[in-house]
Design goal:
Layout (H helix, E strand, L loop, with lengths): L1 E8 L3 H10 L7 E6 L3 E7 L12 E2 L5 E9 L2 H7 L10 H12 L9 E9 L4 E5 L8 E5 L2 E5 L13 E3 L4 E4 L11 E4 L21 H18 L6 E4 L4 H16 L5 E5 L5 H13 L2 E5 L3 H15 L4 H17 L5 E3 L4 H5 L13 H13 L5 H10 L4 E3 L5 H8 L16 H6 L6 H4 L6 H4 L2 H18 L16 H14 L4 H4 L7
Parallel strand pairs: 13-14, 13-16, 14-15, 16-17
Antiparallel strand pairs: 1-3, 1-9, 2-3, 4-5, 5-6, 6-7, 7-11, 8-9, 8-10, 11-12
Protein name: asparagine synthase (glutamine-hydrolyzing)
Family: Belongs to the asparagine synthetase family.
EC number: 6.3.5.4
């Protein structure tokens, strides 16, 4: 996990250096850059794989091609086996993807499994910039006449460049123009979809109930993903929210850690006596983890709220509310580990949100379509919050439920099995699959929003009212957002005012997404 800046075309090295400095928090361990005639690559490193030898940019054998990367390539060892003829310079997972593209071209990105944003450049003007199919790792770009610039966060861009910034689309690769043409213009190609096309139609099984074999398959697929997501040369922990998804992740991760003779670190946050804190504590005791609790006061939450909007670069109320406890959790966890696993994505795969059980999505086909749509929008919502809240402190968050194999196999299950019918609760299928691996009360505990279950929701609601009263007393004008974006509630207006102070030039409709309600 790191932060990257890249520029192609007419290079302003001073601008690139300013951009890189603004995302130092993403990679506090090291800084690297390379300046070529038609490209500039910069890297802020958080050392996780090949801690001593994985410094970036990484060059090829002739120092004629370079790469910087943000994220993790979980099948990097498989790629190295395929590239048996290549002499690798490092043990970095980024180099594996780099060498594969050098040999087979950018279409080979389809074979790369992980979360990543990669920028490559050659001394002859060729290059490539790519983002993983789901958009787990962030990437933004701006086309500025003769120059195209890229960065991991919105805050990296100069104020005068903000109006031109857009979210780089997941699953796409951009290549600069060929020699003799406008090198900044380039071409964009999709190399992979967020959700594999072959599993988009719901596989109906109206008369068939799942079997123990089906449940075992779910356990095996998820266990394999979590094991791969624990790939690291530094300690790995788990964020325990007190809910089903993170408890499952912790249960499997604890076994993997035990096999290595280690004790899994887990981290939970909540106000004194809150439901999430108590539930996480029960899971930790059941699994025997090295458990850490953060018990914030109202002042702690107010302080985190003040920075949450700017840190996550978003003003959607649901994201801001959940970001506040996330920030407190990350600030504590980074004292003990550099990597954490989370339960992001489980609700999208197994229909965990209450709204998907409305009449609008009451058939297998409509439910499947909505699950696919929600996964395709994660990059501008929950994944953005997850990335920024952790990387603000130089902590890497990994999301094993969103592994490509997990998505393919879980979405291939009959969508009918995920409907709340026949006295089922939400995510009934997932609960049955892991019944016995975590405490019974946790397996069958109902879903709460993170900000609510942690006890932060009530406190934050009072703080928002306090902020609104202050703005009203100052007779502040209600802001308007151009480009067709509408502010939907007093809470969202309050957060937007904070966001606008740092990102006044950014177009929300070109960079952000929004939940259906505020």
């Amino acid at each position: 996990m790191c932060g990257i800046v890249a520029a192609y075309g007419s290079i302003d090295a001073e601008k690139c250096e300013r951009m890189l400095a603004r995302i130092h928090h993403r990679g506090p361990d090291d800084t690297g850059r390379v300046h070529l005639e038609n490209a500039w690559l910069g890297h802020q490193r958080l050392s996780i794989m090949d801690v001593t030898g994985g410094k970036q940019p990484i060059a090829d054998d002739t120092d004629s091609a370079y790469v910087v990367g943000n994220g993790e390539i979980y099948n990097h060892e498989d790629i190295r086996d395929v590239l048996s003829e290549v002499r690798f310079a490092t043990d970095s997972d980024t180099e594996s993807a780099f060498r594969l593209v050098l040999r087979d071209g950018s279409a080979a990105l389809y074979e790369v499994r992980g979360m990543f944003a990669l920028a490559m450049a050659h001394t002859d003007g060729r290059g490539a910039v790519a983002r993983d199919p789901i958009g787990i790792k962030p990437l933004y770009w701006a086309r500025l006449g003769e120059t195209t610039i890229f960065a991991s966060e919105l805050r990296a861009f100069d104020p005068e460049d903000q109006p031109y910034v857009e979210a780089f689309p997941p699953g796409h690769v951009w290549t600069p123009g060929i020699a003799g043409h406008d090198i900044a213009e380039g071409a964009m190609v999709r190399f992979a979809d967020a959700v594999p096309v072959e599993v988009r139609p719901a596989r109906l099984a109206p008369d068939k109930q799942w079997t123990e074999e089906d449940l075992g398959h779910i356990r095996d697929v998820l266990s394999d993903s979590i094991r791969r997501h624990m790939m690291s040369d530094v300690p790995v922990g788990v964020f325990l929210s007190g809910g089903l998804d993170s408890a499952i992740v912790a249960a499997i991760a604890a076994k993997v850690a035990e096999e290595k003779g280690e004790r899994l670190p887990t981290f939970a946050v909540g106000t004194e006596g809150s439901a999430d804190l108590l539930a996480a504590r029960a899971v930790a005791e059941y699994l025997g983890t090295d458990h850490h609790e953060i018990v914030p006061t109202a002042d702690d939450l107010e302080e985190a709220l003040d920075e949450a909007v700017t840190v996550i670069e978003h003003f959607d109320p649901a994201l801001v509310r959940s970001a506040v406890p996330n920030l407190l959790l990350a600030r504590e966890a980074v004292k003990h580990v550099k990597v954490v696993l989370t339960g992001e994505g489980a609700d999208e795969l197994f229909a965990g949100y209450e709204y998907v059980h409305s009449d609008e999505f009451s058939t297998p086909d409509t439910l499947q379509a909505e699950l696919v749509r929600s996964i395709e929008s994660l990059h501008e919502l929950n994944l953005q919050r997850c990335d920024r809240a952790t990387m603000n402190y130089g902590l890497e968050a990994r999301v094993p439920f969103l592994d490509a194999t997990v998505m393919r196999e879980m979405l291939a299950l009959p969508a009918e099995w995920k409907l709340k019918i026949h006295d089922r609760t939400e995510k009934h299928l997932l609960r049955e699959a892991f019944d016995g691996m975590v405490p019974y009360d946790i397996i069958w505990r109902g879903k709460e929003q993170f900000g609510d279950g942690s006890g932060a929701g009530d406190v934050l609601a009072k703080l928002v009212e306090k902020e609104k009263a202050k703005e009203d007393a100052q007779d502040a004008e209600t802001p308007t957002v151009e480009h067709g974006w509408e502010l939907r509630s007093d809470e969202e207006i309050a957060y937007y005012r904070t966001w606008h102070r740092s990102f006044s030039g950014v177009r929300p409709n070109a960079t952000l997404g929004a939940f259906a309600t505020a």
